[in-house]
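ugh ok so i messed up the first submission bc i forgot one of the chains. this is the corrected input, ALL of the components this time, i swear. 308 residues overall. if the numbers dont match what u have on ur side tell me asap before i send this to the collaborators (the ones from the other lab, u know who)
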Amino acid sequence: MREKRCGRGAWWQDRFQDMGARITAPREVVLDILHETDDHVSATDVYVKAHEINPTIGLTTVYRTLDMLTQMGIVQKFDFGDGKSRYELVNNPDGKKHHHHLICLRCKTILDYTEFLDDELEFIGKTQNRLSKKYNFNITDHAISFYGFCEQCK
Amino acid sequence: MREKRCGRGAWWQDRFQDMGARITAPREVVLDILHETDDHVSATDVYVKAHEINPTIGLTTVYRTLDMLTQMGIVQKFDFGDGKSRYELVNNPDGKKHHHHLICLRCKTILDYTEFLDDELEFIGKTQNRLSKKYNFNITDHAISFYGFCEQCK
DNA sequence: TATTTATTGAAAATGATTTTCATTATTAAA
DNA sequence: TTTAATAATGAAAATCATTTTCAATAAATA
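and heres the new structure output, hopefully the right one now
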């Protein structure tokens, strides 16, 4: 087993309560794994790690949990074009800060960058406000990706 | 058959020449279809239309052509999380202007928006310059998506 | 405690995308 | 031109991520 959540419960557990979703062992394991990871992980990545911790956890449940977390806005789902989805905590207290992506169209390499967040914040904030109003959308997250060719491929 | 390219060749044909790629009937049909479409189409969408025009064109070739065009930067490939990739011309002279996406996490609806392009242009241009320099990347395109819940789903 | 409801995992089904391979069309060379 | 090399094609088979089905289990509620 692994150490339990600290104190009265992790930040995400309240969200579960609100949704009437149960806090189960498999779900805790998935959340723990996401907290420990800096990378964008695939469902299989999560499954493999989960399986090491608790071999009874099935791939289906991993998919279901990841999907649920995505819909709750706790996890962000990415598709970089290599056929499998990647998942990442939106708010990882210990982990990597919010970042954007630079994707090579030939070799599919993904570079995370965190620079220029100040300029970005300004732009995103403004746009987000305008969009939510205009389209009556409750915006919870965003993604910015640049495409092109990396040093090796250009 | 359908009308041939006007004059000495469409803009994309030069790109083909440069790459040593042949301008074949199936490829012309795929390009034509993309030009006629405003939507983000799936490979199957393209295949169905291509098939109406020329029933000998196979799905495999559609995939291959789309992939090739993506790598050439002529087409942009999107994944919105519904399991199939979408493709769209980057420069569609007659078609829709460059736009960004507003995606509902529950019902998966995709809204295109084109507002606020002036602010965006400024932000994107600046960031793009900085990134190309810093990471020695040849940036050809970008994508911005906002996630959240639409009117019905929130 | 009994009963309803949510969650789970295994196995099967689905469905998009890739690979294989033999054939055909195109270009380059002789 | 004719020929040799190469690129492109399509059908069928193979892959592989993701979903669905369904019976079993666990948790919440009456």
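quick check: Helices of chain A lie at 11-19, 25-36, 43-53, 59-72, 117-135. that seems consistent at least. Residues 1-92 of chain A form a domain with the Arc Repressor Mutant, subunit A fold (CATH 1.10.10.10).
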